[in-house]
């Protein structure tokens, strides 16, 4: 059960976020490292795009916990390597909505739109609400690029990792379709600087 009391300080917010991330990692191993890497990329992209300190903090928290809704998804499904059925795909796609519906500390309310919409697509073909272009919150557009690069370069259960150059090329080719072109450009600007740190 998620906490419903708002932490009173930044230190408590950090501790709370780490606790949720560890819980998610117990449910589906690898999620903690994935969330941490996505956060590094997301914050670097956000800085490049000129976000302020409070916006970057919220983006970092959203990046760390973007998959928290997976706590409500069967872990066997999250680790499945066989072909997915339509029912499997729907169950996994629900994770972005399940976060929005869960009890959580008040400080995470600001993260909810980013987390709900981090699988939307620039061309409107994403989920859960088929938003397109700038209808998608900027933080969600940043998370989409950061998470997709990490999933491509590290693999995610059913998907084998690509080498770094292939993963970058995949992001570049998806600009204007899956991803906001401005976010992709910011990612391309910062990726060479932070990759050695990950």
Overview of the molecule:
With 198 residues, the chain is mainly α. The chain has a single domain (10-197), classed as Orthogonal Bundle (Hypothetical protein af1432), CATH 1.10.3210.10. The protein has helices at 10-27, 31-48, 53-64, 75-78, 86-93, 95-101, 112-116, 138-154, 164-173, 181-194. It is globular, with a radius of gyration of 16 Å.
Shape: globular
What is the CATH homologous superfamily assignment? Hypothetical protein af1432
Extract low-pLDDT stretches: 1-7
How is the biggest beta sheet arranged?
none
Total number of β-strand segments? 0
The helix-and-strand class reads: mainly alpha
User: What's the architecture, going by CATH?
Assistant: Orthogonal Bundle
Task: Kindly provide the name of the CATH class.
Answer: Mainly Alpha
In percent, how much strand structure appears in the residues?
under 5%
For the terminal residues, how far apart are their CA atoms? Answer: 31 Å
Q: Count of helical segments? A: 10
Radius of gyration: 16 Å
Order of helices and strands: HHHHHHHHHH
Structural domains: how many: 1
CATH topology value: Hypothetical protein af1432
In percent, how helical is the residue content?
55-70%
The overall average pLDDT, rounded, is 90
């Amino acid at each position: 059960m998620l906490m419903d009391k708002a932490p009173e300080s930044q230190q408590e917010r950090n501790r709370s976020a780490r606790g949720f991330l560890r819980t998610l990692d117990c449910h589906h191993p690898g999620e903690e490292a994935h969330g941490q890497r996505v956060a590094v990329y997301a914050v670097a992209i956000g800085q490049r795009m000129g976000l302020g300190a409070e916006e970057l903090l919220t983006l970092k928290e959203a990046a760390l916990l973007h998959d928290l809704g997976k706590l409500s998804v069967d872990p066997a499904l999250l680790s499945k390597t066989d072909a997915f059925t339509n029912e499997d795909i729907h169950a996994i796609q629900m994770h972005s909505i399940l976060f929005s519906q869960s009890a959580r500390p008040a400080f995470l309310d600001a993260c909810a739109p980013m987390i709900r919409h981090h699988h939307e697509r620039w061309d409107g073909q994403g989920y859960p609400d088929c938003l397109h272009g700038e209808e998608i919150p900027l933080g969600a557009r940043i998370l989409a690029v950061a998470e997709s690069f990490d999933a491509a370069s590290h693999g995610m259960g059913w998907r084998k990792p690509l080498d770094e150059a292939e993963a970058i090329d995949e992001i570049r080719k998806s600009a204007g379709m899956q991803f906001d072109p401005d976010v992709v450009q910011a990612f391309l600007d910062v990726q060479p600087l932070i990759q050695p740190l990950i």
